[in-house]
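Sat 14:20. Reprocessing the chain from the morning session after the first attempt stalled halfway. Input below, unchanged.
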Amino acid sequence: MSTETYYYGQGRIYLAERNATTGVPGDFRWVGDVSAFSIKLAVEKVEHKESYSGQRALVRSFPIGKSATVDMTLHQVDTDNLALTLNGSSTSVDTGTASAEALPDGLVVGSQVSLANPGVSSVVVSDSTSGTALVLTAGTDYTVDADFGRITFLKVADFVQPFKVAYSYAARKSVGMFTTGQKNFALRYEGVNLAEGNAPVIADLYKLAPDPLAELALITTGNDVAGMQITGGVLLDSNKPASGALGQFGAITQVAAA
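Finished this time. Tokens:
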């Protein structure tokens, strides 16, 4: 009788973008906490039922296509992972200053205006009085939400619009939505089987095409942190030999104890 083996897995998932021309993966990047990861295999079949016995029995069934998909729940909601899930690219802005950013004209008491940059400090608001501009007083004429770069006006009657703002701003990273085409990645899972003494388990998927994120929950409720549900198709990697022992889609490896 063979030894019983069970599986209870935990581990890390790494992704590497494949070169669009050569198909060679670049550097692998750990994507952070993933609470669920599964691979689903399917075949497209032709099936025929006979029409001579009165039983409509199945007499032929054979596969004509293969497919595999991946599902995972990713909890590290950072710009690198958002670039992956939003079909976007990450853009960085260094710290800097704005000297005379003009605000919209016609502002009234209670008007709120977002500056071109968040994370602001050393904010100075002035008006457009000819000659020497008047400088508004923070807390009396306006307030600033520094984190979001938002100004709320408390007093405007004694000033000439448009207002102009000088300030410093912090570094930031942003990701646009649908700014790039779909990219292909190599996926590597390095896990341990808790049911068998933390035995190492490796899963390699040679060519993964992630779908755009179906939903991104930016307001969360309940008792757990937000997760991004990611799905993708596992594509045939024509760079791998069709007759190779590990195929052209991927492989799962169980590592013997040292």
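The CA atoms of residues 120 and 169 lie 4 Å apart.
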